[in-house]
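Pasting as-is:
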Amino acid sequence: MLDIDEIRKRAQQASERAAESMKKTFEKSEELVQKIEVSSSEKEKSVSAAEAEAQINANTERQVEILGQIFGADGMAQMAVSEEQLQKMVDEKIAEASAFTAENMMEQMFGEDMGVLAAALEMLEMEDADDEEACSFDLELEESLYMTLEEAMARLEAMPEPEPVPYQKNDAKWERFGILLSGIVSTLNDHDLHRMDVEEHIPAMEQKVASLVRSSWGIHGRSELLDMIRYLAQEGYILRYQLYSEASSPEELMDETMDEDDCESVRRAWRFAQRYKSQYAPGFLSGWDVGRAAMLARWGCYLGYITESEAVGILWDLSHKVAEGLHSWREFAQSYLFGGLMWKLLCGDCSAGSYLGYLADAAADLLTGTAEQDKGQWRDHPWPAQRKIGFTV
C-alpha cells in the first residue's frame, strides 16, 4: 500500500531539485553570455555568440524535457507561473534598489548615527569650500568690502519698521524679544523662532547643532558655553573695536607670539576701526555680540548644556543690555553686519562680501516678510522703547 504523504514528500524533493537545477542552468547561461561579451579579443578565441545561444537553448530545452517527464504538463504549467511570479518579484526589487538613493542606503545602514555622518560630511564640505576661497587680501578688496557694508546698511536703514513700544519691567514680551535676538542666525539656519528650542529633538538635528557649536565655537559642554556667553556679554567685539580704535598703530596690538598672518589680520582690523571710529562708537557693536550670545543660549538649551530657565535668564540679561544701547531692529541688524565684517577681516576670509549679503537678506526677511512665509517676526514684535529717567531737585 502506497503512503500518500511519502509520495508527496518525494515529489516535493524532486521539485526542489529540479528548480535548483534550472536555476543553476540559468546562472551558467548568464555566465556564458557575460564571458562572450568581455572583449573583442576573447570573442575571437571562443565560440561565436550565435553558437553559444544555440547551446543555451538546447540545454534549456533538455531541462524542460526532463522536468516535463518528472512533473507532467500540469506541474510544468504551475512551475512556469511560479517562475514568472518569482521573476516579477526580482524585477521589482531591482527597480527599488535602483531608485534607492545613497542617502536612503546610508540611513538604512547607520540609523540614528546618520546625524553624525551628515554633520561630518557637512564639515568636510565647509572645509573644501574654505580651501576654494583661499586668497590674499589687498587694499582694493578691503575698500570694496567697505562699500558693500555701507550699501547693505543703507538698504536696511530704508526699510520700514514699527516704532518702539514700552515694555513693562516683568513684561512677557521680554522673553519673546530675547529669542528674536537670535533672529539673523536662526533665519540663516532655518531654525524655529517661536519657542526656545531651535529644532525638533531628533538625533540627526541634535548632532547637526552639536557639530555646528563644536566646529564654529569650540564649545563641547556647559562650562565652555557659559564662558563664551559671558565673554560676549562683558567684552566681545565692543572691547576689541575699542582697543583697535584707540591704538595709534597696528603694532601696538601685536606681540612676539604672532606670525605674519596674525599680524596682517591685526592690520586689517585696525584699518577698519580707524575708518569708522568717528562714525560708530564701540557700543554700536552690542548687536553683533548680543545676537551671537542669544543664539548660543538657545543652542545650549537645545543641546541640554543649560536648562530652559537658565536660558530664559541669560536672554533676559542680554535683552536689557542691547535695548539700552540700540534703538531699533534696523540698528541691531546694522550692528550685526558691522561686527560681521570686522570678524571676517580678522579671519582673512575673502567671502566676506557674500556673507554680508546673507546677513542683510536675513534681516530683510525678519523686517518685511509675511506671516504666511513664516517671516516678519521683527516687524510683528517691535523694539522696546528706552525708558526715560526722571530727576528730582
